[in-house]
Amino acid sequence: MDFQGSLFGAPSFGTASVDAPTFDRVVRRELTRGAWVDICPAWLPEADDVFAAMVQDVPWRAERRQMYDREVAVPRLLHTYGVGEPLPHPALARARGALSAHYRPELGEPFVTAGCCYYRDGRDSVAWHGDTIGRGKTQDTMVAIVSLGDPRRLALRPRIGGPSISIEMGHGDLLVMGGSCQRTWEHAVPKVAHAGPRVSVQFRPLNVF
Ligand SMILES: O=C(O)CCC(=O)C(=O)O
Ligand SMILES: [Fe+2]
């Protein structure tokens, strides 16, 4: 921490004193059919602060959706930061910048949106899906997830069938789904008997949802 930064408790933009996320510990796991995941434990600097700020400051909304003849609550809280909208903590802006720079040669474009999910306890979850509302349905793309708070399992399975794999996402961990992952694989965060709060931040390129 730089002297001024610690003195005023303010983030010191543009100085070398703030931890920049790095990629030397990232490990790639190739899945089938051109899908892959990159994984790096304890990747995000200032994860404790970011988690606390997000729980408190993000304007979380509860969604409802139609399920057959009833309307049910979506079992997690949501908020999306769109293109150009300020993120709730400077460490997240730095993380997005670092991800954009690191993956640019492969991705060809920056990460521009941040979808946020708040899993309040083990009953909150997301069912099997791919992020295929936008271009992920037809094109290779990337979704970079930063996980905060209690660990939860991200399960992945091939769309054509076959065994699922599961990756634990802990506090500050990075998980990037890449290649054909959104259209040839599905992912889920299953319910568990016991879990404390978890926040997930998903950085996506333009028109990937
Ligand atoms: O909670 C996560 O990390 C995954 C969330 C997710 O897959 C989504 O919102 O599309
Ligand atoms: Fe997803």
UniProtKB/TrEMBL annotation:
<dbReference type="Pfam" id="PF13532">
    <property type="entry name" value="2OG-FeII_Oxy_2"/>
</dbReference>
<dbReference type="InterPro" id="IPR027450">
    <property type="entry name" value="AlkB-like"/>
</dbReference>
<keyword id="KW-0223">Dioxygenase</keyword>
<dbReference type="GO" id="GO:0051213">
    <property type="term" value="F:dioxygenase activity"/>
</dbReference>
<feature type="domain" description="Fe2OG dioxygenase">
    <location>
        <begin position="110"/>
        <end position="207"/>
    </location>
</feature>
<protein>
    <submittedName>
        <fullName>Alpha-ketoglutarate-dependent dioxygenase AlkB</fullName>
    </submittedName>
</protein>
<keyword id="KW-0560">Oxidoreductase</keyword>
<dbReference type="InterPro" id="IPR032854">
    <property type="entry name" value="ALKBH3"/>
</dbReference>
<dbReference type="InterPro" id="IPR005123">
    <property type="entry name" value="Oxoglu/Fe-dep_dioxygenase_dom"/>
</dbReference>
<dbReference type="InterPro" id="IPR037151">
    <property type="entry name" value="AlkB-like_sf"/>
</dbReference>
